[in-house]
Model the fold of this input.
Amino acid sequence: MENILLIIISLFALILPFLVVKVLAFFLPVSKKSKNKNLKNVYVYNFIIKENFQKLSLLQELNFFRSFFTPV
Done:
């Protein structure tokens, strides 16, 4: 049961950044003089990737510490 819940959470964590990117890219203001229309998507993707790496490293640290407290 715990494994199924973990799989569902990890799948949601993989899909959520793409949804957030689409929503943020829709609402972010873009200069009309900008020649590259995808520039706003690049900024949002870079932000999301940086945030996900920070969350991933935090999750890895939490799993490392959790391994000490779980019974074998």
Q: What stands out?
A: Helices lie at 2-27, 39-69. The chain has a mean pLDDT of 71. The chain is about 80% helix and 0% strand. The two ends are 18 Å apart (CA to CA).
